[in-house]
Amino acid sequence: MASLTKDLTAAASAAFSAIGLEARWGDVRRSDKPDLADFQCDGAMGAAKSAGRNPREIASEIAEVLKAYPAVLSAEVAGPGFINLRVSDAVLSARAADILADKDMAGGEPAPDPQVTVIDFGGPNVAKPMHVGHLRSAVIGDTLQRLLKFLGDTVTSDTHLGDWGLQMGHLVTELYDEQPDLIYFDESYTGPYPDEPPVTIEDLGRLYPAASNKAKDDPARNQRSQNAVAELQAGRPGYRALLKHFINVSVAALKVDYAFLNVSFDLWKGESDVDHLIPGLIERFCKAGLAEESQGALIVHVARESDKKEMPPVMLLNSRGGTGYHTTDLATIEDRMMHMHPTAERMLYVVDQRQALHFEQVFRAAELVGLIDEGHLEHIGFGTVNGPDGKPFKTREGGVLRLADLILITTEAVKEKLFREDASTGEFIVHDGLTRAIQEHFSLNRKLGRRSLAKLYVNLMMTFRSMRMKDEWNVRKTSTSFNNIIRKSTLKSEANAMHYFYGLAIDKTKSQLIDTIVGHLLKFNFRALGVFDSSRSSSIILRRLQEYIEELYARPIAVAALRFADLQNTRTTNYVFDIERFTSFEGKTGPYLLYAAVRIKSLLRRAEADGNAPGEIVVGHDAERALVLALDGFGAALLGAREKRMPHILCEHVFGLSQAFSGFYGALPIANESDPALRASRLALATAVLRQLEVGLGILGIDVPERM
Ligand code: ARG
């Protein structure tokens, strides 16, 4: 489905052609000045320059042609030769209807040139915990994988584990020092390979830093690790078995962090998986006369005359006969392009910008030896995550921040905003203002027996009941038991309700009772949960509540905060990690966008409950026009993000869309509009916005909960 921008571009391009000028001048885009125009075309100036004509004259000729299009309401020449375009309400209404009807792409359009693409991202190293630097690769890579798949590319993602370097030697030797009796160290070991791993992830987390610290100022210790790597790479069975264990144990742990971030991979291959290809590959380089011996190492020159910067050679084999990062990356290209994905047209590496030289070298060597044309290999570099000092983010102690800790910090910051304990009063406070009324109903200072649970329950019901009038809750959507109580006309007093509740609770255990209460609490907007005191009596419920809140709200909000904060930056720039800003519910943040989408959901739910359905879209008001223009930009944002491999373009779009929605929401009644046709139209617009927001956020890896 074409967008208005595209249609207008086609029309303007044809107009330029018709007067003998190049079609490319007909590029149309959204206007910078929405009060003056919907779209603009700036091509007349460029065209005039190359044709040696007057730009305003050209602009008015083009404008005349465009005016003839029924979609074009007005076409005016401004300044030196800008063409300002307004489109009709009818064309905007029709476009909005198309977007709403587009179940698959919510107004986006597929890539014109779908490709078979491998995306290499994540790049965690076995036994080394992931750190803040791995966040960007994970989040950008995953977003590109979602984006490309959405647009029709055939994508295979591979995490490319770092499992072939010195760290493996450190692990093997350090483990030997602790447990020399392990069968894997037996020189005659050839298998079998028992399922039970000899180490846990905690062991790995301890062994690696221990060894690497010792090796730092002890060359002999370092040499032992290097020897172990050499033996491993040479295929010593016991070491290979250990490697496999280390990988399995690490991958299980890595999956937890990735799952939190909503990141997944098709393949979990690693450097060690291409070991068997290395001898053949080296042979290939030698046969082609590309490899050369230098100080005991085998190298490939990749420098070119035209190089402005120094381009060191690729190292195929080091002087110890071992293979490193260059060689495994080259063998991996062979594996992917020749064995795994013979039809692959493209390979994307989402890796820190600081590895640019490495990839330049590898890509050149890959082309030299005939694996693939360099042009099909792309390094998608990204900037660093910095601390407030502008240097790569460090913990207070000066170490690198682990990704798991980053996730923890973010979740805590979100929880702090949702649900926090006031240090001075010991009260638990739930985000937002609707808490007073509930607070008044809570005086849970006695022992939490069945009776007080019943009382708590009743208090909650009373509170909800009294607040129902003032606020937006839809009490109809809660569980039957709760509904029954609410509907009971006998609920005149607390005593009556309590009586009723005892009836309900008769065969429930205490913990079932707690679950029932918590369940009911959670069926409501959590903002209504109110302020609790933290006396012992209510602590069980509080704890349970906190767990639920964490799982249901804090986690998705934290994921949204982290992913959006990262993705909204131009990929190649560095950004400063600012947890307060990222987790804020205001501004250009993930939580804000979630909140915006959840608000539309609840608006539509309420409308539906009131029997108001979306209907035919009739655009008229400025705020509606602006909203449809925003919706119309989705396709271009998706394709732009794909073409440039820049997720922030999509972030800009979803943010702009939610702003346009908030303008619309502020300017016009929606569910409360008294004219039924307008009400139905606005509900339809809201539905289209929600769907596009959800699709857009989904590509960014952000899921929108039902309530927040
Ligand atoms: N393991 C590497 C690192 O931590 C990243 C791997 C990136 N991918 C690649 N094919 N080289 O730096």
TrEMBL record:
Keyword Aminoacyl-tRNA synthetase on entry: yes
EC number of the protein: 6.1.1.19
Subcellular location: Cytoplasm
Span of the annotated motif 'HIGH' region: 124-134
Residue ranges of domain Arginyl tRNA synthetase N-terminal in the record: 2-87
Swiss-Prot/TrEMBL catalytic activity: tRNA(Arg) + L-arginine + ATP = L-arginyl-tRNA(Arg) + AMP + diphosphate
UniProt GO cellular component terms: cytoplasm
Entry superkingdom: Bacteria
Keyword field contains Metal-binding: no
Domain DALR anticodon binding: 593-708
Pfam families per the UniProt record, alphabetical: Arg_tRNA_synt_N, DALR_1, tRNA-synt_1d
Keywords: Aminoacyl-tRNA synthetase, ATP-binding, Cytoplasm, Ligase, Nucleotide-binding, Protein biosynthesis
Subunit comment: Monomer.
Family named by the database record: Belongs to the class-I aminoacyl-tRNA synthetase family.
Protein name: Arginine--tRNA ligase
Gene this chain is encoded by: argS
